[in-house]
């Protein structure tokens, strides 16, 4: 199943709004637009979740590789010789 089309957009915009299939069905009915079945909704939602997870994992791996490279270039290592970067999480 491809992650393209109106159905996927319907599924994609619902979780951030805090609504699920039942509310989607009511919304599309009020707009006189056909709604996908609950089974299709769940398949699309699951596939979308997998796609987002895979993309996030890939980005985190790339960020880790960049941080490792930067740490090696700047000579920052922990006591065990593992490259490390100082991270400030609170923005100060």
From TrEMBL:
* UniProt xrefs under Pfam families: Mutator
Q: Which residues form the Mutator-like transposase domain?
A: 17-92
InterPro entries, from UniProt? Mutator_transp_dom (IPR049012)
Entry protein name: Mutator-like transposase domain-containing protein
In its UniProt entry, the species of origin is given as: Aphis craccivora (Cowpea aphid)
